[in-house]
Write a structure and sequence with these properties.
Elements: H1 13-28, E1 41-46, H2 52-63, E2 67-72, H3 84-92, E3 97-101, H4 105-114, E4 119-121, H5 129-143, E5 150-154, H6 160-171, E6 175-179, H7 188-201, E7 204-208, H8 211-215, E8 220-223, H9 249-252, E9 260-263, H10 275-278, H11 285-306
Parallel strand pairs: 1-2, 1-3, 3-4, 5-6, 5-8, 6-7, 8-9
Helix pairs in contact: 1-11, 2-11, 3-4, 5-6, 5-11, 6-7
Bound molecules: phosphoric acid mono(formamide)ester and norvaline.
The site of phosphoric acid mono(formamide)ester has 9 residues, from helix 2.
Keywords: Cytoplasm, Transferase
Family: Belongs to the aspartate/ornithine carbamoyltransferase superfamily. OTCase family.
Protein name: Ornithine carbamoyltransferase
Amino acid sequence: MIRHFLRDDDLAPAEQAAVLDLAARMKADRFAHKPLAGPRSVAVLFDKQSLRTRISFDAGIAELGGHPLVVDTQVTHFGRGETLADAGRVLSRYVAAIVLRTHGDDRIAEVASHATVPVVNALTDTYHPCQLLADLLTVRERCGGTAGRTLAYVGDAANNMAHSYLLAGATAGMHVRIAGPAGFQPDAEIVARAEKIAAGTGGSVRVLTDPVEAVRAADVVATDTWTSMGQESDGQDRVTPFRPYRVDDTLLGHAAAEVIVLHCLPAHRGEEITDEVLDGPHSAVFDQAENRLHAQKALLTFLLEASGSARSDLAS
Ligand code: CP
Ligand code: NVA
């Protein structure tokens, strides 16, 4: 069976832990793992902008011994009538895996349902699961583990990062608190799914509007832009309701003394996070960005192996 990674809970708790274990081993011995030797190719396709995702997949696939094919879809036939189903079928004839950043989840689901190789979500409107693997690797490194730790995400609680924190954090056994203003709350179905996962992992989920209550004694405080890609002209006021959620020294003062701060980047300095916090002693943001590389290398290795199409690096 082909294993895709379209949303965070496509990895069961033990599988997520195995990917993070492998990511740590790959980070410790960066050029030792070559499951894509051949080289086998991986298509990395972008319907939206990117810096980190684009470069970390490109470099990571090369480090695995493979050949990255990084393409902006405006130069393909995606926008002029070629169906995503046909694209999934065709690309599967060329490459070992397909990585896609796109808009609606229906788009990546359509590619996956016709692909015969693993498909990876490199960000959609609803989820950013590769980012969460990097975030969890960072939490492991800085906090000694994920289970039982409290993670507070404050800001746009209706966006892809909020949803991925809910699902991936619950899968990792974390106590996840999500706080955003009225009208910017997470999808109720995703919250319910996260609650169900947390019940099995010893984690928990709380959705709040009060940012201070959310960050109180938290081990991890995370935020993200108030305006995600594609929302620039959605007609909503994306500044005024979010001001109380800015991560500054005052808000951070309510967290645990050894709190770490995460932001997936790009940051809008002075909006959702201040320079003092982003560049301050609690920030783990640049380790977090580096960990995209290691986590995605491990994820690709896991998916290829679980799909029966790679030699094992998990046990090494
Ligand atoms: N964090 C993240 O996904 O960054 P990019 O949009 O630059 O890829
Ligand atoms: N929520 C942001 C994340 C960027 C990496 C967006 O979707 O634009």
